[in-house]
Amino acid sequence: MTVTAKQPARARQGSTGLRQEGPPGLGGRRSRAFFGIIAWIVGILFVLPILWMLLTSFHSEENAATNPPSIAAPLTLQGYREFFSSGPWPPLLNSLTASVISTIIVLLLAFPAAYALSIRPVKRWSDVMFFFLSTKMLPMVAALLPIYLFAQSVSFLDNIWLLIIVYTTMNLPIAVWMLRSFLIEVPIEMLEAAQIDGAGLARTLRSVVAPVITPGLAAAALICFIFSWNELLFARVLTGTRAETAPVFLTGFVTSQGLFLAKVCAASIVVSLPVLAAGFGAQDKLVQGLSLGAVK
Amino acid sequence: MRGRLRTALVIATAVGCVAGLSACAGWGGGASAGGQGSINVLMVNNPQMIDLQKLTPKYFTKKTGIQVNFTVLPENDVRDKISQEFSSQAGLYDVATLSNFEIPIYAKAGWMAPMDGYLAKDKAFDQKDIFPALRQALSADGKVYGEPFYGESSFLMYRKDILKSKGVTMPAHPTWQQVADIAAKVDKAKPGMAGICLRGQPGWGQIFAPLTTVVNTFGGTWFSKDWQAKVDGPGFTKATKFYVDLVRKHGERGAAQAGFTECLNDLIQGHVAMWYDATSAAGSLEAKTSPVRGKIGYAPAPVVKTKSSGWLYSWAWAIQEASTHKDASWKFISWASSKEYERLVGKEVGWSSVPAGKRESTYKNKNYLKVASAFANPTVKAIRGARPNDPGVQPRPAPGIQFVDIPEFPALGTQVSQYVSSAIAGQMSVSEALRRGQALADDVAETYRTREEK
Prior knowledge:
- The complex is a heterodimer.
- Chain A is mainly α.
- Chain A has helices spanning 2-21, 26-57, 61-64, 78-84, 89-118, 125-134, 140-153, 160-183, 188-196, 201-212, 214-230, 233-238, 246-251, 261-281, 283-292.
- In chain A, helix 4 (78-84) crosses helix 14 (261-281), helix 5 (89-118) packs parallel to helix 8 (160-183) and helix 5 crosses helix 11.
- Chain A is globular and about 70 Å long.
- Mean pLDDT of chain B is 90; it is low at 15-35.
- Chain B has helices spanning 2-25, 47-64, 75-87, 102-109, 116-121, 132-137, 160-165, 176-186, 208-217, 234-250, 260-268, 281-285, 326-336, 339-348, 366-385, 409-425, 430-453, and strands at 38-44, 67-73, 95-99, 139-140, 143-144, 147-152, 154-159, 274-278, 296-300, 313-319.
């Protein structure tokens, strides 16, 4: 959803740019209309599957499975009733725990790290950046078996803290890279002024740097939250009955015997809601953060 | 100073809230946590299992005090997770649903606990009531390793009204040629209706479940007794050609992607007139909401050279060797596979949803027969007639009707099924598909030949 929300903003920006540079009149208006139409098409393409899912979630199983699809079939809450009667709260809370705690830890670690790589760069900072990036080059699945065997030998399987650690390590490089790109744009003069006023490092970070890069922090936090909320591969292998997360629980509705489309759509809608809510909540900050940069 | 304190308080409260919330979710220590009074069960999410999950707290936990925590996953996912769990003996789960394909293999590997000790003490369970074919398929080296939750064979389902409208009668014991002739006659009996639905979706458990039973009755086999691959042999080729021709000429739309679920939908929605598949499908066809309820006839699995050709499949409970709650696990299994549980489902959910196909006594229950009269008899005959150790015309090196019970079969079957599925889609000839399949099967056979020579 955030993608679609972003699209018109970008298109507007593009058309504004053209209008300023190109000759005024017909050509500008035409290209503006052209970009407008493209933006609408892309937006609709992105939203259509979600609307389809929403509609299907309100159909009965029989109507959801027909071919050709029956769009005007009567609406029912049956899918949602079945989802909520199957005990979805423990997995949802597990997902929330893993996502929120790992995001907080990631931000707490990534912020100082990014500071040390941009404003006061450590020696050979570019090597360090590359090292962070290189950890994302390894296919995640390659780490799965060692982690599983290690967790088994230390009796750490089916424990939500294992997922918190895994998600923190997965998202840390991304957050460091994102925050660094915001921090690099903080004018050095601001920091010098703070120093002259007698602010220590902690005070500078908290009272001068943090407010300036709030959009960056929001964007990084949202990305980390979405990635951990949606993660399936590790959660499926490393959890059991107690630490099961929402995506794993969601796959349980897909069955090879009998109909399940309406139920799965209802479940997917509910499981997507927290991410959508977080996206909408951070929308202003995000558009600022992702499209404008930190301090412009 | 004050500001700092406030920030610290806010953070502490936020962390506290999340921790408090998740404490309700019950995360905690390692695999050994959770007392004697609780067991963890990993199972496939078929409708019968979902009913069990709903009935357990009220009817099992309340009586025994044993808390049952379930993980339910789709079939392929559950197989992955079970093999990972059992091969590493992680001990995270006490009980899992395994099929008669895995049980003999896992038993040999020593990953499961035998149940004979419990069976000797638990007379009420009545092990003799379980169908002999299933008892045999779920045992290894004379020990019982699995208790069936439900069992199934395969048979032919057909629309009585459509056949009648075309003046066709289904023989009591049809041959595949007769079925092909009927499929041609009822094809397009109504607009958009195909003659027959046969699985074409790749996967050893998809297309090769029905196709291997066709191969068996046409006189073919995957392997000969002395481990020679026979995938491009005359029986296998003739059967596959017949199957592919039939589904291409008179089969469902999108056959190369159709599995159990797609065929079930097709028959329910009137897109096909016949379907050869699992006996357990009848429960859905005769359910109260089904538009084809009462319109379906059931005939034994079609044959050519053998007397019967139906497969044998069962989802069964097994106890992991590494489990530390074996006694509680047996109590759960003994309840879930009992006669009493079948009666409970009949009363609470409906008699057509009973996890049947495992006990002789089910087919003497008047309440069940009243609802299941159309398919109960054909089902019980099909399961009794299944011969997992002698399914074809020649001796076999490993048991199994719709599969070969060796650990390599899922990979082999799935690869070959992709070629056969391509043949159904018209992208490859059957001979080419089987030529490639033969090469793969020969690799597997060779490892067994060298092992036996040693």
